[in-house]
Amino acid sequence: MTDLKKWLWGSLSIPFLFLVWIAIASRYPDLIFPGPIIVIKEFSVQLASAEFYDHVGISLYRLGIGFSIAAVSAFIVGTLAGLSRPFRLFLSPIVSFFQATPPMAWAPLFILLLDLGNAPMIAVIVMAAFFPILVNVIQGMELIKQSHIRAALSFGANRFQLARYVYLPEVMPSAFSGVIVGFGIAWRSLVAAEMIGGDAGIGWLISTSGQMANSSLVMVGIITIGLMALFFELVLLQPLKKRFASWAPRS
Amino acid sequence: MEKELNDKLTINQLNLSYDGKRTIFKDVSLNIKKGEFVSIVGPSGCGKSSLLNVIAGFIQPTSGDIYVNKTPVKKPGPDRAVVFQDLALFPWLNVIDNVAFGLKIQSMDKKDRFEKSMEAIQLVGLSGYEKASIHDLSGGMKQRVAIARTLVTNPEILLMDEPFSALDAQTRENMQDELMRIQEKTGMTIVLVTHSIDEAVYLSDHVVVMQNGGGAILDMINVSLPRPRNLEMRLTPAFNEYKRQLIQNLKEGHVYKGEQSGSGI
């Protein structure tokens, strides 16, 4: 299929969504489930209000800090686990346990421990993103071919060169899969955590709007979450993946 | 065994066993002179690949010594380049960056790196594919990249672990001729591990036969077919006589005593 054809099929989904939306909205009163026109109007009102940007900004701030902590620490722990089999075996039950628990389930505890505000939200994000990235980094380390290491050694590579020219590039595709999965889980968990225990942020905006029966603002919040995730995926993650991991046959 | 001046690789009473009991190979001694082509043949599990890995320095022998130019070697080094069975090309690098890898490890500056790599790429007949991705190359072309990658650092010895086993018959024959042409040009010493007796006879000055199960050296045969060799030689009675001799030795499985064959290695 040509790129143009792919693009055409992809772009067909937008009018389709709008049609389904209009069809459903026509069966309910505007106050319960508003149609696209009302929501777009509300969107433009929100885009002109400083408060809306504050909520988006605080969610992004939490995401940025939490995700960075998770990614860096998962990369370090994953690399060490990849190098040491005993450490890997030690980690395995811990990883399985935490991966099975929804990150959101930790939110009440984090709020009790860390009080309201940014700290418990960041903790939820770290919890959500750390394990998927860790698992993928460990897997990437296990996939490193012994012959690649031996080839580098036979050229006289030292430990630093081995890490820089073999381990790092070879682990990148797996690590990036982890980053993309972890990012999706982290973003969704953040919004959910903000809804139950936040004092600000997009999730908080949605839940308070719902309590005040402002369904069009709820819709604005949902659309904002979706569009931002799409933006990160297309503008940040995919180009980075293309740059560092495009050589991998699995994608 | 008297060490001569042009001894390139000397292997002395080399043994490898795991946990003190499972013997991989035993009492392997070889003298290989500069510019010689030596093949190691033997059934699966005879320890021939392990022997190559020990020579390369990837595995430590249980006992015995290895010398390159009379200097003992204990770990991997650029004096012994390796072409791996799976080639071990780096799929995240294009052709020229794969070829230049060894020079980058040696911290050679970019311009010299480029020139040397281009030279090696030309030598293996891959000019025009410098920027190609490894994924886009055919099996034979990947072989050429793997060989070019070893050539850039001017190794003393090229160790090859069944490099052609994944190729179709036609490509395999082409690569064998290529390898002989490259050796003639570079004067490199080559040690090749192979399953194919035909390949061993065609390429080698000496063929080493290893014994099944705990690999001692069964026999060593000098192949004195003239060089340059060509495909037609494969049909001559002399060629087939060498093959017959090797097959016989592999079948009988008697242990070789150094004095009997009088081969120079």
From TrEMBL, chain A:
Protein name in UniProt:
ABC transmembrane type-1 domain-containing protein
ABC transmembrane type-1 domain residues: 56-236
> Record keywords: NADP included?
no
Gene3D superfamilies xrefs: MetI-like
What biological process terms from GO does the record include?
Answer: transmembrane transport
Note the InterPro entries from the entry.
MetI-like, MetI-like_sf
Keyword Cell cycle carried by entry = no
Provide the species name.
Domibacillus epiphyticus
Report keywords, A-Z.
Cell membrane, Membrane, Transmembrane, Transmembrane helix, Transport
Query: Matching PROSITE patterns, A to Z?
Result: ABC_TM1
The record's principal subcellular location, in a coarse class, is: membrane
Family as reported in the entry's similarity comment: Belongs to the binding-protein-dependent transport system permease family.
Location relative to the cell = Cell membrane
Q: Mind telling me which Pfam families this protein's record contains? A: BPD_transp_1
From TrEMBL, chain B:
Q: Which named protein is this?
A: Carnitine transport ATP-binding protein OpuCA
The alphabetical list of record keywords is: ATP-binding, Nucleotide-binding, Translocase, Transport
EC number(s) in its UniProt entry?
7.6.2.9
Tell me which positions the record assigns to the signal sequence: none
Listed Gene3D superfamilies: P-loop containing nucleotide triphosphate hydrolases (3.40.50.300)
Q: Which domain of life is it from?
A: Bacteria
| SMART domains in the record | AAA
- Keyword set includes Nucleotide-binding: yes
Instruction: List the InterPro entries.
Output: AAA+_ATPase (IPR003593), ABC_transporter-like_ATP-bd (IPR003439), ABC_transporter-like_CS (IPR017871), ABC_transporter_ATP-bind (IPR050166), P-loop_NTPase (IPR027417)
Q: Which residues cross the membrane?
A: none
Assembly and interaction partners: The complex is composed of two ATP-binding proteins (OpuCA), two transmembrane proteins (OpuCB and OpuCD) and a solute-binding protein (OpuCC).
PANTHER family per UniProt: ALIPHATIC SULFONATES IMPORT ATP-BINDING PROTEIN SSUB (PTHR42788:SF13), TAURINE IMPORT ATP-BINDING PROTEIN-RELATED (PTHR42788)
Q: Name its species.
A: Domibacillus epiphyticus
Give the catalysed reaction(s), semicolon-separated.
a quaternary ammonium(out) + ATP + H2O = a quaternary ammonium(in) + ADP + phosphate + H(+)
Provide an example Pfam family for this protein: ABC_tran
Report the residue ranges that make up the ABC transporter domain in this protein. 9-237
**Is the Nucleotide-binding keyword given for this protein?**
yes
The GO terms describing molecular function are:
ABC-type quaternary ammonium compound transporting activity; ATP binding; ATP hydrolysis activity
